[in-house]
Predict the structure.
Amino acid sequence: WHLEKQPTPKMPSEKAAEQWGVQIELVALTAAGRMVDFRYRVLDAEKAAPLFDRNEDPYLMHKATKTTLAVPTTAKTGPLRNTGEPEVGRVYWMLFGNPGVVKSGDKVNIVVGDVEIKDLQVQ
């Protein structure tokens, strides 16, 4: 018998690194569960640039319910996300408002324009 080794399926963080030039650092509930904190490290500034596009409104999609959550905008600070020019090695963040939809252990997708990072598990 000769068994061919099947390719190991790639984890969401590996796909994000290859396709979008970012390493997922954290997807977790914060602010007593009222927000989802998404943190990512830039590995390739050119690939990661679309995540910083001010003209795109990022959202988080809760996989189980298909509910979308937006990045809140405050009067003093503006949208709760990083914009500008990405720097390799630096960690950036986005916060998504969570009215009790997303729970620890749930799977979510992060979408910014054409960028979609799928199947991230919330801590």
